[in-house]
Amino acid sequence: YQVAQLYSVAEASKNNTGGGEGIEVLKNEPFTDYPLLGGKYSSGQYTYKIYHLASKVPAFIRLLLPKNSLEIHEEAWNAYPYCKTVIT
Fold it and tell me: Single GO molecular-function term (predicted)?
């Protein structure tokens, strides 16, 4: 199940990316010695993604907002079945 979940997320990211828009995966690597949930989980998969949303919003909103305000940065530590996600 865990492998299938990671595969489906990667495929969705790839399918939504094109022309500089969509999801940009900057890091996708194993992590160790990063305690999660009080030290219960300490290894798994780390991902750092940027979601580019400019093409997903109406043109008049793009004109009103700064370009970098249409980006969401996501860091995730997936230690199945526990996952910590930080969105900024």
Answer: phosphatidylcholine transporter activity
**Are 20 and 52 a contacting pair, CB within 8 Å?**
yes
3-state helix, strand, coil in the chain (%, to 5): 30, 50, 20
Encoded tokens for 81? 């079945």
Residue 50, both tokens: 């940027």
- What span, in angstroms and rounded, lies between the C-alpha atoms of 27 and 74? 11
pLDDT per 10-residue tile (average), the chain, 88 residues:
72 64 87 85 91 86 87 92 92
> In degrees, to the nearest 5, what angle opens at C-alpha 20 toward C-alphas 17 and 26?
70
| Helix spans in 1-88 (H) | 2-15, 59-64
- pTM for the model: 0.72
